[in-house]
Amino acid sequence: MHWINVKKTVKLGIKSLWMHRLRSTLTMLGVVFGVCSVIAMLAIGEGASQEAQEAIARLGSTNLIVETVKPPQEQTDTGDTQTVRKYGLTYADAESIRNTIPEVEVVVPIREIDQEARYLNRKAAIKIMGTIPWYTEISPVQLTRGRFLSSTDLHHQLAVCVIDDQVARKLFTFDDPLGLDVRIRGSYYRVVGIASKTAPAGMSDTFGTQAAKTIESTGGVAGNIYIPLTTAKSRFSEFAYQISGGSRSAEKVELQKIIVKVNSNEQVLSTQKIIVALLNRLHKKQDYNIVVPLELLRQAARTRRIFSIVLGSIAAISLLVGGIGIMNIMLATVSERTREIGIRRALGAKKRDIIIQFLSETLLLTLVGGMLGIILGSLIPFLVTYFGHMPTVITGSSLVLAFGISAAVGITFGLYPAHRAANMDPIESLRHE
Amino acid sequence: MAVVEIEKLCKIYTIGSVQLPALNNIDLSIEEGRYIAIMGPSGSGKSTLLNMIGCLDRPTSGRYCIGGEDVSKLNDDELSLIRGKRIGFIFQSYNLIGQLNVIENIELPMFYQGFSERESAERAKELATMVGLGDRLKHRPTELSGGEQQRVAIARSLANDPLIILADEPTGNLDSESGAEILSILDDLHRQHKTLVVVTHDEHISKRAERTIQLLDGRIDRQECNHER
User: For burial by CB atoms within 10 Å, which of A67, A415, B12, B100 has the most?
Assistant: First the structure.
């Protein structure tokens, strides 16, 4: 087969496909949608998994997050009309973690309080994060202006705060917040720094784990305000009152979170065990939960693999259907063109020439279909992102994969019809009407 | 020199358990530059013999040489090569390819022999002009009359300058006027020392040939030479 002939064969293929435009287009649709679904699904899957991994990575792979959880309600002390339930992590817990586990680099206790912040006549629902200056070690707080909390602030229980830019936008629309005071529950806190978009010290619900306190999504909380832990301790009560079924109950929680940072990834799991052992001794009830971002990362990888397999099989099935459609049409084309095949054979075409002719037609169909599928499939993720507000990522490898698959479909489903065409008896086919 | 040499050629078709002898002990030799007509009633094996000579089919037994090459031993690809290079076919129903225009139809045999595009286009144009279709190069077969289509077919059969041209009832589908045109082109080819084998029912056509072979029941019944021309 010479190069000129390849060119001519392709030309001929285009010509005969063009003669049956409608049929070619309809046949192609199978591949178009198959490839399109491969790309779109991979993009959506990749987007979801990347979002998940970013969220986990933001938590820090060397971090362990110990959270307070409400233990299951006990029915034993229902006699009292007023009970104080004390549970959760305590300052003592943080202290003993720091003192007993040598691998631990930083221990950051966090107290979270949902409050309302005011400036002049503006107000915003915010979350107070009572913490220590070393918070920056475990969470990448990016300061756009000013400074983070200092040890002096902590030591002297100063009424200072660092606000994130969401709070800044909401409260100080026109003013420079730095040096101004935010009012929370009648006390004033001087703004010493502004952080850009704070990393959530929780999980995004991409994993279906715990409902996360992400930046924007939590019931009306506009953003975070960081204040020294000592200030939070002295100014905000640790009691929370609830009225349920006529009885008033109070809860006392010292710390919502303790974030532990270890030296390296290898120590994460062993440290987790030690913390569990330690806390089990200190706590009677199971009122805490340890979240290990590293483990979540691994879980996410597993989930992603399953996701890929499922999406892959769906796409494979749709491509298979498309391929069968193509084979069907090509078989019809072959029997329709029996006479042409006979003529070509009589005029010196070898079996191979006939195979190449029909295979190239199938390949043209599938490759053009694949190309259209790639275009359409790259468009869909944009629409999904735009209208569905879901992140999507089109990877180069998925494009290559889709194109390769459409070529493979073309060859696989084109070979049989082409073979059938080539093996027809020339005399018989010349007689064919 | 004999272009075609056939010795004791038999062709037996087996349909199920029934054996149908189509050709029986044919001995035939065709010299270069001859014009031969094959006649006979339908079912006498004319077409089978033509298919044999055209290397579309292989004999059951016997020997067949074309241009000194023994065909009975060749494989499918080699047969294709011989058909493409050595043989020109003219069919009763023209057998042009509908989606190709005149020039592309004539180029077809050259396409399979790997001619360059320019070379084959030039030669195709030349041949089309020769059969009087120089102004119809871009027309599709459906836009041509029967006689014109058959002239395209003749031009196509000449594309690779074959050793022998086989025509199967070349005027069978044509009115007498176009038929006469085709026959005069065949006469021209004969004058140019092309070897021609024409299968026909028509006495008038066979009279134009130098030799007529009468087939009957797969055998050569008689051969006669026409000396009146």
Answer: A67
CB contact under 8 A, A348 and B97: no
Residue B25 forms part of a structural domain: no
Examine the pLDDT at A207 and tell me if it is beyond 70.
no
Q: Which of A2, A347, A353, A430 to mutate to test the interface with B (most CBs of B within 10 A)?
A: A347
Contact predicate A20/A365, CB 8 Å = no
pLDDT of amino acid A211: 36
Among the residue ranges A80-89, A286-295, B154-163, B164-173, the one predicted with the least confidence is A80-89
Interval A374-393 mean pLDDT: 88
| Residues on chain B touching A343 (C-beta within 8 angstroms) | 95-97, 108
Mark out chain A residues that contact chain B at CB-CB < 8 A: 2, 4-5, 8, 15-16, 19, 339-340, 342-353, 426-427, 430
Phi, psi torsion values for A167, nearest 5 degrees: -65, -40
Tell whether B111 is covered by a domain: yes
Asked whether the beta carbons of residue A351 and residue B54 sit closer than 8 angstroms, the reply is: no
pLDDT at A214 over 70: no
Report the CATH number at residue B122: 3.40.50.300
Q: Is residue B107 predicted with pLDDT exceeding 90? A: yes
Q: Give me the residue from A15, A339, A349 closest to B80, CB to CB.
A: A349
Whole-number Å distance between alpha carbons of A183 and A201: 24
- Does this model's pTM top 0.90? My answer is no
- What lies within 8 Å, CB to CB, of A341 at 6+ separation is A334, A354, A421, A422, A424, A429
Interface ipTM:
0.94
Cβ proximity of B174 and B94 under 8 Å: no
Residue B43 structural domain: 33-56+86-225
| CA A405 to chain centroid | 26
Nearest by CB: A4 against B95, B97, B117: B117
Residue type, A251: E
pLDDT, tens digit, for every residue of B200-229? 988 888 888 999 999 999 999 888 887 654
Q: How far is B227 from chain A (nearest CA, A)?
A: 33
A411, two tokens = 């060859």
Within a domain: B216: yes
Q: Which chain B residues have any C-beta within 8 angstroms of a chain A C-beta?
A: 51, 54, 56-57, 76-77, 80-81, 83-85, 89, 91, 95-99, 108-109, 111-114, 116-117, 156, 160
Per-residue pLDDT tens over the stretch A133-177 = 988 888 777 888 888 999 999 999 989 999 988 888 888 888 888
Distance CA B11, CA B214 (A): 17
Contact criterion met (CB < 8 Å) for B156 and A347 = yes
Pairing of strands B164-168, B87-90: parallel
Q: For chain A, which residues make up each domain, given as ranges?
A: 3-55+300-431, 70-286
| Structural domain total, chain B | 1
